Amino acid sequence: MPKLKAAAVSFLNAWPLTAGLDASDRIELTLAEPSRCAAMLEAGEVDLALVSVAALTKGEYEIVPGLAIGADGPVQTVLLAGDQSPAIWDEVFLDTASRTSHVLAKLVLDDMGVHPEFSPLPAVEGLARATGTKGALVIGDRAFDVRKSQVLDLGREWTRMTGLPMIFALWAARPGRVSPEDVQELTRAAQHGLGIRTELAQRFAAQRGGDPERYRRYLSQRIRYGLGPHELTGLETFLARAAAKGLLPPMPLRFVDDVVRTTRTRRHVSLDTALAKGAAGERLDEVEAELLDERAPLLELGLAADARRRALHPDGVVTYIVSRNVNYTNVCTTACHFCAFYRPRGAADAYVLTRQELAGKIEETLRLGGIELLLQGGLHPDLAIEWYEDLFRWVKSNYPTINLHALSPEEIWHIARTSELPLEATIRRLVAAGLDSIPGGGAEVLDDEVRRRIAPLKCSTDEWLSVMRTAHQVGLKSTATLMFGVGEEPRHRASHLRRLRDLQDETHGFTAFICWPFQSANTRLTASDGSAHAYLRTNALARLYLDNVPHLQASWVTMGGGVAQAALHMGCDDFGQVMIEENVVSAAGTTFKMDSEEVERHIRDAGFSPSRRNMRYQRLGGAGA
Amino acid sequence: MPLSTLANRALERDGLGPIRDKVLAGARLSDAEGLQLLEAKDLAALGALANHVREARHGQLAFYNRNVHLNPTNVCVATCKFCSFARKDDQHASEGYTMSLDEAVEKVLSKRDYGITEVHIVAGLHPTLPWDYYTSLLGRIHAAWPELTIKAFTAIEYHYWAEKFGKTYEQVLSELQAAGLRTLPGGGAEIFAPRVRRKICDDKATAEQWLEIHRTAHRLGMKSNATMLYGHIERLDERIDHMRRLRELQDETGGFQVFIPLAFHPEHNMIGKAFPKPTGYDSLRTLAVARLYLDNFDHVKAYWVSLGERLAQVALGFGVDDLDGTVLEERIYHMAGSTVPQALSERSLHDLIRAAGRVPAERDSNYHVLKVHEQPLPPAPPARLPATA
Ligand code: SF4
Ligand code: SF4
């Protein structure tokens, strides 16, 4: 198979997207000046190119989803510079290299009410002449060296103007040339490149001098590489404003089709046999799981799962926990397509909780009989392990009784990466600071084909599992989750369950499994309607397949009390949490609420006896028992 | 098709083997058996049995229709304790309203472009509106839009008018039939048991009167629906008693088309505090038992406006074969605090049905199939508002 031809700029900020392509056997990369990249793409000399967004107007290109070069605040390498305040500038020299920056510069100056002449001039010359009433645009690596008294960072200005990230460049492809597998390859390369940002910074410093730490911070805290809902809005806003001012022609966004489709032949198994095996508690294999997923009627799956639940939890007790979900920050650089929760740093409603706010929430939780704090958040680029350690110590010294159920594998992975520590050391330090157990969030679908498509910058399946493995080995318990309905196929769900079951055989660290359907309001992915039926089926299948996971939680927060009650009759033995707060899901539109009285009424009404529990699923006496 | 091994095992474990045998043999369940099913602890097994009956009757089809709701007034002299719709008068402060004839007729006619086949009209018991308000309302709608099926007024309203205007049930019904009435909705049945009726809706038509009005309508050649309001102060045996009376009348007339259990909605009304909304579990078992007990009813409907789309979808596996239509305007449940969207587009309804493994079938008011949608609808055209809007 001939390799796909790609071109990219050699700027440092592109390295994390391109470094991993050096060894690619699918994609052959050429490095070139920005304008040359655009020209090669236009001439068809390459199939795709990492180009500045303005180059999208040059043809009917398709955008590779999920990846981009952008910023949600200062970007450092797209600057207007001069000696005097921009307010008095009457001429601005535009670096000849990038149209996107020209447009951005014009939009920013226009917003400030400044309307100078614009003259094209190479950056070196422009910068030299940027004195008095003259300013100059400088982009790319040379902006690192700008020493002027007046510097306007256009990334910061854009975010200040709009509250949105600015997207500078992305992978654009000639129509029909890039396959879903190629998208996977580009995403894999990005994952690799983002993982070695420190090394890239050192390499860059060795090449051209300067402080490697400064470059590292630039790559990990300034530049964002995701193209999620906010980034897309930022991109669309930029294009719309540019079009309104006549700076760029209006342009619809098209994307490369990124759904991997396969046709396979499968060993023949009978549905009845698979159901009977499942109901009897015999171990199902992946092919059987797939078959059940595809073909078993809802109530057949439900009856089989109910038989398992009766065998595992014969006393008809349904447990629940009183706990509080707290999202310590909504800032995240990962930009998953499905996520309605995260905010770019510059957004008006971006936050990091203060100790005082957290104290208020914990005290309220304790007052309401809560015993657990479920602490999760976005992947904030500025927070390193010390921040978490301080936080945990502070929680534990002020509220020693509360169980700290915190940090999904994704976050732990991120902390290890940001702090440049090995996983085990990271987890041990967090445990020493007070971490009690970890939630199984962020698993989504543990199959990279799906994962890369919906959450390109999240850690891979293997990485997610390795965090869990290490945590279990260190002695932590955790839950496991599945978010389905993101366009995956039964084989992906089966492989998700298999990966969980394999790890559970190894560590026995999972206490419970919880699944819920993707909810779509405010996000780019569209959900399939009618998620309740699929929810009950998936849940029942999990009860059958995950023979080594003791508990299954019904997800009433996402599905509503009635569907959750039905789930109790189809495999679940736990009613989840009485929750005081939940942001990640509610940002996407779910609003079910219950207090413990309502939770117990639902459990009783469905024919079970309620009991409160702790995170280890030990039943607690007293209320409800 | 036999029942699956798993279902059989579960039913036998819970002592429901004999009931299963009767159901499979097509025999009628006794009241005691109905009650035993309502009290059964195994929801999945109950569902499997109800689903068996449902599939034997309707295969994989799930019916819906396209209708518009019209509630011409919410002013009502009755004081039903569960009602959050009625207002004492049409003064603005009390949110009472009464539409003029023009307004009401126009409201229906403005929906001409939506492919609607039925208008569903119910109202409060208005103390002063004259008889010809009602005959004109139906007459004018019917004259302007003759293909539209008019399904109008509950037995409660017919009874009230019969008393107020000194007419027999037959006169009331046949005069409206002459104006364009074609079929009756099933509202106002609540729970037939006098103990319950005395407490929750003492001043409206009794069970006997409700049934007599439907009997009369059936005799006049009109079909009707039947409802049951559950999940408040009634006992389980009173639900069975309610269904028994319906089953008996159905044996006599064959005029009921569908049974629609309605979950009590507690917000904004007088008994809400003491009686929280019935749980989804209760709704599913009630629908399933209705499918098994009401052997002479063709259809069992889940009213998604009240249950929510998710539970309504699940109900398609628990004996339900009909989801309410793509309702265009609905006030009653929304005034009771329902948070479900007002209208489901035909597309989302199809998605919901298909995702439950069923085939959507559009029906008319008399349950004739207009179109079985074996294939998904073509992709949505770009959103466009009707020119007349
Ligand atoms: S799902 Fe998590 S990692 Fe992804 S964008 Fe949202 S907060 Fe960030
Ligand atoms: S239920 Fe009907 S009769 Fe009773 S108060 Fe409400 S509108 Fe009036």
Fold and architecture overview:
The complex is a heterodimer of chains A (625) and B (389). Chain A has 625 residues and is α/β, with parallel strands linked by helices. Chain A is 41% helix and 18% strand. In chain A, strand 14, helix 14 and strand 15 form a beta-alpha-beta unit. The longest helix of chain A has 18 residues. The N and C termini of chain A lie far apart (65 Å). In chain B, helix 3 packs across helix 11 and helix 7 packs across helix 10. Chain B starts with a helix and ends in a 17-residue tail after the last strand. The complex binds iron/sulfur cluster (SF4) (2 copies). One iron/sulfur cluster binds next to loops of chain A.
Provide key terms for this protein.
heterodimer, A: 625 residues, alpha/beta, D-Maltodextrin-Binding Protein, domain 2, TIM Barrel, seven-stranded mixed β-sheet, 23 helices, 41% helix, globular, B: 389 residues, 2 domains, eight-stranded parallel β-sheet, three-stranded mixed β-sheet, disordered C terminus, binds iron/sulfur cluster
